[in-house]
Give the backbone structure.
Amino acid sequence: MSIGIFDSGIGGLTVLKQITKTLPEYHYVYLGDNARAPYGDRSSEKVYECTKQGVEFLFTQDCALVILACNTASAVALRRLQQEWLPHAYPDRRILGIIIPTVETIVSLHTKRPKRIGVIGSRATILSNAYGKEIEKRAPALLSALFQKSCPLLVPFIEEGMQKSVPATMIAKHYLRPLKQKQVTLLVLGCTHYPLMKKKIQAIMGRNVIVIDPGIIVARSLKNYLERHERIRERLTMRDPSFTQIKFFTTDIAEKLQSTAARFWGKGVPIEKISLG
């Protein structure tokens, strides 16, 4: 069996890349719902339905475990899928998100040296206050040092491969200005698309600000999860660590998806188009 990675578009490739670096011995199946991206401006019900369809497709591809490499899906749909759908539809499978391991890292970093924390993400992620809720569970005192900002226009630029363009830079500066004014010292990229313009964001925020890439955190968290859950780990097909097999699927063949996949895994990466819903 394989590990599935689901995202609304190309952003999840940044998570998949980090996971395959950390755990190269497994099979992976990636699905990007590019036809319906971005999820950030959709209703909660629509995000839930789209995410459920994507996860179910990955389960039909023999995935024992699916990572929601999408902050919006993790914020809006994950808990409902875990509690209402999974126990009845696929009781032997698991779905994990991206927000909880990221928050655990935030809390850990804060305890070493107090920080003012910024989170940028889609409109749906920020409105859900998912980061605030998870921080409150673990370190309520941190809420006064938390500042969140939705950046709805960044994902379309990234999906179009325009993250290095002048307009994208201007918009990023506009979104990040309030966080700079709050003098945040730690910035969470609360959307898996954003690592594709991390250098630009880092330059805008300044070198004294720690910019967190969730992909690295999720990869480490998944490794720990598999070490703790032997039954899931034993169901996964193992390969020679020197070779990772990945299947790529999308609901809409996008040039940027192909170019980003080629950037990470070499030219000629086969991507199959499928339909959901």
About this structure: Strands lie at 2-7, 28-32, 63-68, 94-96, 117-121, 146-150, 186-190, 210-212, 246-250, 271-273. The chain is about 50% helix and 15% strand. Residues 2-97+215-273 form a domain with the Rossmann fold fold (CATH 3.40.50.1860).
